[in-house]
């Protein structure tokens, strides 16, 4: 049981967390110590958290050349601010917040630039494993350091994050907060890729490679922008039903096709799509995605996490055909200043978040949630603390 909130302000909290002690080993529930927030930090009581493939990759030890364990993973979550550190002016105790892994300080050159959503201080950095001052806010009961993950670490009853990574939401409805948890990563990344990075236009054609939560969010974003043909590519036939419900107009399973996927898509679209989105993290799929775009104007948005050291499978001269490729981080959204508009649209029903929540489990069953994701049976499994 976590320390009482009324007694916790400014003190160390003892609470329950799921800790990864080694790559690929089941997460272990244990009591940990959580330090008070330091300057420009907030401590948050987590209410809901979920798992995405980035957590899976980090847990397996795939995404970093130097693995940091023990560690608390998780980066999609919502909760309530328990206490604030020195200098924090835009957040207060009891504020309802969504945690974002790609933060925004609002003061650096990156934040002031309209052409990027990166932040010099709080931007996502997969190699970062401690707070900005080089220390951790987590430890075991006997004082052993526990590492942070992606500016977030949400598989715990309480976490500490930089204030630039916590987005205040104007909602008194806890059920709304539950749904808006999905804006922490996957849904925002997919919709933003369609709206901000690609700027999908009405009547356009789109191909999406990989129909997990991010790929399906791309589909919804493209549908909202009026795309006329949205082709989904996935090797899991079970994705067909939900894909159709989320805007996919045509479904291709490469294992069922006699022709290469690129050739199939070009035939369907008169030479290729306007926009393609690579959501798998597979370099061979990236090549298919790129070549599925139309010569002269096709744009590929790279969303998949490529942990492998393999380089882009493109010949430089292929870029002279007029196709372009662009990477997307958090869908191009500036977390603090732009994401509230998406939250408002979701609350109005423009984007149906409920469809992404395929499973709900208590926090204690987090390892089952990992199994569901690995088996390809869930989009988002929401864990309730």
TrEMBL record:
<feature type="domain" description="Alcohol dehydrogenase-like N-terminal">
    <location>
        <begin position="39"/>
        <end position="169"/>
    </location>
</feature>
<comment type="similarity">
    <text>Belongs to the zinc-containing alcohol dehydrogenase family. Class-III subfamily.</text>
</comment>
<dbReference type="Pfam" id="PF00107">
    <property type="entry name" value="ADH_zinc_N"/>
</dbReference>
<dbReference type="InterPro" id="IPR002328">
    <property type="entry name" value="ADH_Zn_CS"/>
</dbReference>
<dbReference type="InterPro" id="IPR011032">
    <property type="entry name" value="GroES-like_sf"/>
</dbReference>
<dbReference type="InterPro" id="IPR013149">
    <property type="entry name" value="ADH-like_C"/>
</dbReference>
<dbReference type="GO" id="GO:0005829">
    <property type="term" value="C:cytosol"/>
</dbReference>
<dbReference type="GO" id="GO:0004022">
    <property type="term" value="F:alcohol dehydrogenase (NAD+) activity"/>
</dbReference>
<dbReference type="InterPro" id="IPR036291">
    <property type="entry name" value="NAD(P)-bd_dom_sf"/>
</dbReference>
<keyword id="KW-0479">Metal-binding</keyword>
<feature type="domain" description="Alcohol dehydrogenase-like C-terminal">
    <location>
        <begin position="213"/>
        <end position="341"/>
    </location>
</feature>
<comment type="subunit">
    <text>Homodimer.</text>
</comment>
<keyword id="KW-0520">NAD</keyword>
<dbReference type="InterPro" id="IPR013154">
    <property type="entry name" value="ADH-like_N"/>
</dbReference>
<keyword id="KW-0862">Zinc</keyword>
<dbReference type="GO" id="GO:0008270">
    <property type="term" value="F:zinc ion binding"/>
</dbReference>
<dbReference type="GO" id="GO:0051903">
    <property type="term" value="F:S-(hydroxymethyl)glutathione dehydrogenase [NAD(P)+] activity"/>
</dbReference>
<dbReference type="GO" id="GO:0046294">
    <property type="term" value="P:formaldehyde catabolic process"/>
</dbReference>
<dbReference type="Pfam" id="PF08240">
    <property type="entry name" value="ADH_N"/>
</dbReference>
<protein>
    <recommendedName>
        <fullName>alcohol dehydrogenase</fullName>
        <ecNumber>1.1.1.1</ecNumber>
    </recommendedName>
</protein>
<keyword id="KW-0560">Oxidoreductase</keyword>
